[in-house]
Amino acid sequence: MKEFILPELGENIESASVLNILVKQGDYLKQEQPVLEIETDKATIEVPSNVEGLIKDLFIKEGDKVKVGQVVLRVEESLSAEKPTQVETKVVPTVETKTETKDETPSSTMQKQSTGGIVEFIIPDLGENIQSADILKVLVKVGDVIQKEDGVLEIETDKATIEVPSTVSGKILEVFIKEGDKAKVGQVALRVESVLSSEVPAQQNDIQEEEKVETTQTPTVKTTAKVEEAKINPVLQRAGLIDTQPAILPHAAPAAPSVRRLARELGVDINGIPGSGINGRISLDDVKAYVKRLNENRSTFSGSSIGIKTESLPDFSKFGNIERKPMSNIRSKTADHLSYAWATIPHVTQFDKADITDLEKVRKGLTSSAEKEGTKLTVTSFLLRIISEALTEFPQFNSSIDMERKEIIYKNYINIGVAVDTENGLIVPVVKNVIGKSIFQLSKDMNELADKARRRKIGLEDLHGGCFTISNLGGIGGTYFTPIVNSPEVAILGVSRGSFEPVYKDGEFVPRLMLPLSLSYDHRIIDGADAIRFLRWVVEALENPYRFLL
Amino acid sequence: MENKINLVVIGGGPGGYAAAFIAADMGMSVTLIDADKNLGGVCLNRGCIPSKALLHIAKLINEAKEASHWGIEFGEPKINIEKIRAFKNKVINKQAAGLSTLVKQRKVNYISGRASFISSTSLRIDKNDGTIENVTFDKAIIAIGSVITSIPSLEVNSKRMLNSTSALELPEIPKSLLVVGGGYIGLELGSVYSALGTKVSVVEMTAGLLPGADRDMVMHLSKRLTASFDKIMLNSKVTSIKESTNGLTVTVEAKDGKTDEIEYDYVLMSIGRRPETKGLGLENTKVEVNQRGWIVVNQQLETKDPNIYAIGDIAGEPMLAHKASHEARVAVEHIAGHKVAFEPKAIPAVVFTDPEIAWAGLTETQAREKGIKHEVAKFPWIVSGRATTLDRSDGVTKLIVDPDTQQILGVGICGPGAGELIAEGVLAIEMGANVTDVALTIHPHPTLSETVMEAAEVFLGQSPHIYRPKKS
Fold first, then answer.
1. Mean pLDDT of B124-135
2. Which end of chain A has fewer CB within 10 Å, C or N?
3. In this predicted model, which residue has the larger pLDDT, A482 or A17?
4. Out of B334, B374, B445, B465, which one is annotated catalytic?
5. Mean local confidence (pLDDT), A177-205
6. Where along chain B do the CATH 3.30.390.30 domains lie?
7. Which residue has the higher pLDDT, A136 or B338?
8. pLDDT averaged over every residue in chain B
9. Are A419 and A385 in contact (CB under 8 A)?
């Protein structure tokens, strides 16, 4: 018997609503076969299975709220018994692993072995957020025979100088890097004629199994904490008063004297704090977390997260019939996210108009070739290409701000989000690695994503990693609008409907197709002059389509 | 400097001096008032410290005697009471001198005299030098301790009539001594005199020695005292004490009404201690005293008067020095504006007899009386290697455990060194340790501390030194 548990769904997502169950009891479930359709805060996604076998028990039903780590179903494995390790390997690269990594994870590529006994040594993951490193020394040369764990390279990261051990054994056939190179995580460094490298994937399994254990444990802890939330309010009322906390009750959860003291100092009753340890043992961290949660609650009591006092709602039913409906996850997350962006980013919106008469000609001229390529060109397709070039030209538009550390983060990649209006609300799928892609390709990518979004098939990996957002409302109408920057990005381009206008040109008014553009930007990092320079650049690119097409 | 909290501490015992020192360290301006010749209170001058010095001597005498079983004969000890007294006084003086130094180093304003409140912000001090001084304060801490309980009808004006204070003065080595009261003070002092050669008898009103302590803890002590003492009269009370030619004639009435008249060289009244606030001028403040004489305080040791705190014996039971000094810290920190409370899970109690008896947290007796769900795990010292090397198998270590959470609620230890061993139990209770925590903590071998770990293993059903046939 094997259980399928709801895998990690990505950043901070703890639970999701079940929209559809795509399998039933008695079905034979295969690996990667979609099991559920769930709605998270961010999107509707299909969750594929990581187990195989006959479905014996199904523990959830449509409409349930499932938590990460919860058992969804149980299968009886019929013939997969002899390959348990293989199954295990696949169990773990869940949605999270897919979303986190841009290309291929080093851990998975490391196992990739050429069939002829030739293996590659790839620069492994060097730790938190280290993407690349300078090669100080290459410690091996062609012809050397290396063992696993032998030092291969000495590299310097921004954190330390590290000797990188080999993950493969064998005779070195080729060395692809040299001293002074900047090597990226995932880059192939050596090619080795393998002697016995079958241990490598086994080791990987171990690591991944550990990870799995972790992911299944954390949610339970979080759950207990959540259950307690209901109790908070009475405590909250008492919290302001000095020294009314009772002593720890004789049979209360265990808490060391220092922990009791901290709770008292912070003004909370130790007896009401949920402990995360054995028998509910309360740790210092539990107390801090509890107080933090209290404070968060308090701020939502008094208003939004930035401490603005909310006005209480009137009783609308006095004025007529009303209906109350819960917000969907997407709606409530969108509301939170946009409130945050609106409240924290000093927005300025710059307007301009682009003459796209010529661009329209080009677009129409390319229609048939686009059809041959199996896609349809739109203004947004062109904009994707233009914006990617503009971001290269104006790198501060491809940055994020770390206010805590007073740092600006510049990105050396370009992924562009495109706002899509769906039945379920606003979704912003991200077109990845825009640099170097043809307009046809970009158009194809974008249409696929939009289609997936509308059909609720979008994966979380398609919603992360944007650098800039384009919101094109031109299909519906309007002249200008003031889009809200999709934080942590720093700018967004709003596109409205193009219309023919009389333009004074060469001594006369001529009808030209004018496209209204609205660029909202984060004034903390982008100055007004830069913004108009950026927007003018975009306008000029739109007006001279051949310039960037060639 | 003007903004300093002006604190007055009344009483220089382990509660009072601790309060004064902590407050001074926290930057308060501190006046410490004590009526005694020396700082240190009853604990240092007439209690814990001198009695321990004498008990140390008693232990040595007893062990030297027992050494004959191990092949060593010392012969009868020659006891020089003057020298013993001098040793005891040296111990007191050394400690007292240390306290005086600390007072000076901390620039605490120390006044010898008797204080009484004029109001909620002022005191009158009748100084030991005969002068009177009035002081004002922002906050005051009452730490005046307790006094010896006496039964007026039994009081005889005789030098043969001792209380704990005069007994520690070691007037002489009596031929016979009746200890009235089988509590810890009487048994400790009785043990001292017994070791010095006095024939000691005990009369106790209840059915056993050390009322309140678990019987299985007291058992080993009773056995030993029955052997070393002359007579232990339980369920009995003294109805009269009369001075006779060669001593004091005491009438002891047993439960069944039978009376006995016995003549003793000396009688030690040790029936307990009580609070006494007379003369303190509390009527001039808002401080309230309960029916039994203790000052009413809350968790922060505040009395009903917002300016006045009370700590130690005067603030309620248990009347123990370590409770007082812990309360001192809480009170001072609260005065300093910290959010604190007196909320220990366990206050250890130690009886320094031989064997020693110590407990902390919930006792089995309390658990039963209050109907608290509990399980008991015992490790008898007869299987402890270390106890065997000491030729002392008369001990036991037990844990009172919550069966649901396996948390340790109480610890009881009987045996030599129990007073030192109990500290681990207190820590375990305060930390909320469960039996597995204790069982998995490596204890040094061979020591008596292993018995705590093994008791935990007994609870878990797998102590290596105890064989229990498997239930079928």
1. 95
2. C
3. A482
4. B445
5. 65
6. 349-460
7. B338
8. 94
9. no
Do the Cβ atoms of B432 and A256 come within 8 Å?
yes
Q: Which CATH class is domain B152-271?
A: alpha beta
Beta-strand ranges (E) seen in A386-498 are 399-402, 407-410, 416-418, 420-422, 425-427, 430-431, 468-472, 491-495
Domains, chain A, with CATH or none: 2-100 (2.40.50.100), 114-196 (2.40.50.100), 216-302 (4.10.320.10), 331-549 (3.30.559.10)
Residues of B in contact with A281 (CB under 8 A): 432
A242 touches chain B (CB under 8 A): yes
More reliable by pLDDT, B300 or A10: B300
Q: What is the pLDDT of residues B214-255, one digit of tens each?
A: 999 999 999 999 999 999 999 999 999 999 988 999 999 999
- Relative orientation angle of helices B16-25 and B81-105, to the nearest 10 degrees: 30
Distance from CA of A265 to the nearest CA of B (A): 5
Which residues in chain B have Cβ-Cβ distances shorter than 8 Å to A251?
402
Chain B contact for A275 (CB, 8 A cutoff) = no
pLDDT at res. B57: 96
Q: Is A464 noted as a catalytic residue in this protein?
A: no
Q: Do the chains contact at B431 and A256, CB–CB below 8 Å?
A: yes
Rg of chain A over CA atoms, in angstroms?
Answer: 28
Where do the CATH 3.50.50.60 domains begin and end in chain B? 6-146+275-335, 152-271
d(CA A519, CA A517): 7
pTM for this structure?
0.56
Task: Give the count of alpha carbons within 13 A of B86, CB side only.
Answer: 5
Q: How many CB pairs under 8 A join A and B?
A: 48
Instruction: Tell me the per-residue pLDDT of A129-152, one tens digit each, with 9 for 90 and over.
Output: 566 777 878 888 888 888 777 778
Whether residue A264 and residue B340 make contact (CB cut-off 8 A), yes or no, is yes
Amino acid at position B313, single letter: D
What ipTM was predicted for this assembly? 0.75
pLDDT band at residue B27, thresholds of 50, 70 and 90?
very high
Residues B6-146+275-335, CATH architecture: 3-Layer(bba) Sandwich (3.50)
A355 belongs to the catalytic site: no
Q: Are B163 and B269 in contact (CB under 8 A)?
A: yes
Task: State the pLDDT at residue A317.
Answer: 83
> Which are the contacts of A194, defined by CB distance < 8 A and separation ≥ 6?
A113, A117, A118, A119, A168, A169, A170
Is A397's pLDDT higher than 90?
yes
Query: B349-460 has which CATH code?
Result: 3.30.390.30
User: Cβ–Cβ of B339/A242 closer than 8 Å?
Assistant: yes
Alpha carbons B463 and B439: distance in angstroms, whole number = 9
